[in-house]
Amino acid sequence: MAGYKASRMSEDIRRIISAKMRELKDPRIGGGEMLTVVRCEVSGDGSYCRVYISSLEGLDKAEQAVRGLESASGLLKREISNVLGLRKSPELKFEADDSAEYSARIFSKLRSVLPDTSRTDGEDADGGGEPADR
Question: What is the pTM of this model?
Fold first, then answer.
């Protein structure tokens, strides 16, 4: 399978799994509102797909969601096969990832270090309330 086809297929699988997570009723997944499919990596022959799951609530919640998604992998494989029109759907391997939690932590640190640069709605860059003449 060519590189562009594998990357296109991985993006499609990421989109399908993200949409399907919200419909699953497994309490470990919890509707998928705080979960993110960070990335998918499809093997060169399209027989395996590694899916990285992250949660804003931490790595423990992501690991719980991984267990829930592994139990629903048959449903997800069927959906992927139907939507993409594949004869053989790739084997899904889910892994917990802490990148969403890590980025939220970095963002909060940056917010505490950097000065507040937000302006009110009426102000321009020069600090006046009136728009500059052009």
Answer: 0.74
